[in-house]
Amino acid sequence: MGGLNCVKDEDPNDFQSNGDPHGTHVAGLVGANGPMKGTAPSVNLMSYRVFAKDGSGATNFAILKAVAHAVENGCDFLNMSLGVDGDDPALAEAITHARNEGSLVLAAGNNSHGGDVGSPSNYADCIGISAVRRTDVLPVNAQAQQDITASRGTSPDTFFAAFSCIGNSLNITGPGVGVVSTVPGGYGQLSGTSMACPTITGFAAQLLASNPTLMKADRTRKRSDEMAKILMENAQNLGLPADQQGRGLPFT
Fold first, then answer.
1. What is the pTM of this model?
2. Could you please report the per-residue DSSP string of the chain?
3. pLDDT tens-digit series, residues 148-166
4. Which pLDDT does position 248 carry in this prediction?
5. Peptide bond into 184 cis (omega under 30)
6. What region, left, alpha or beta, does residue 156 occupy, with left being phi > 0 and alpha being psi -120 to 50 degrees?
7. Dist. CA 150–CA 161, nearest whole Å
8. Which of 75, 83, 90, 204 ranks highest by number of CB atoms within 10 Å?
9. CA 67, 42, 107: angle at the middle one, nearest 5?
10. Helix axes 193-209, 21-31, angle to 10 degrees
11. Which residue positions in the chain have pLDDT lower than 50?
12. How many other C-beta atoms can be found within 10 angstroms of the C-beta atom of residue 33?
């Protein structure tokens, strides 16, 4: 539906793919509406690109700019499939501002291979997401087989992803191993908490769309807190430790 390129010295109107499939894959997991559908195929998507075309990482300035514009444009959910090095008080403040303005931020927990949950996923006003998957949906010779661990849920097919972070600041989990979605020119599979995050963002959008009263509510902290509450209430315990799954996997 539009967007903004937040990368310094690039065309602000060039907010679509920067040549890397990551962003397109994330967007498709939320809202793809072709042969393969995202978890919210009727959603209106905005793109705020923070990664440069030269392949360099996203700057804190670009991320802050993206959050500010997303809130200003009335986005209900901000999907952040990224992480920043160390703590960033300005970003934490921006996420709190988004929450206070009725927008809910969801962020990938981090691909730290069992390490700590990273920023911004570990901020109190952000929904932090880890990655899980089921063994029975992965082809036998798939590259993603390397991400299977012995950490299993109540169902022996459900496993915690080898690359995913661990920590008490995690809120929920999502499918993030060998996930197929849109890439420039077609479809492809990627793994990461970056994939788990948008599947849950799309699900959250579906929950909001099914609640007309909340959809029309004033854009305040009360609205975004209620959105987070409903999402958590739909999280189902997978039988994994809380520092791996948070409340569990949201589904109905």
1. 0.96
2. --EEE-STTS-TT--S--S-HHHHHHHHHHH-BSSSB-SSTTPPP-EEE-S-TTSPPPPHHHHHHHHHHHHHTT-SEEEE---BSS--HHHHHHHHHHHHTT-EEEEE----TT-B--BTTTSTTEEEEEEEEEGGGS-TT-GGGGG--S-B-SSTTEEE-TT--B-TT--EEEE-SSEEEEETTEEEEE-SHHHHHHHHHHHHHHHHHT-HHHHTS-SSHHHHHHHHHHHHHTEEP-SS-HHHHTT-EE--
3. 999 999 999 999 999 999 9
4. 98
5. no
6. alpha
7. 9
8. 204
9. 30
10. 30
11. none
12. 12
pLDDT of amino acid 28? 98
- pLDDT of 55: 85
**Encoding tokens for residue 76?**
């209900």
Quote the pLDDT of residue 81. Answer: 97
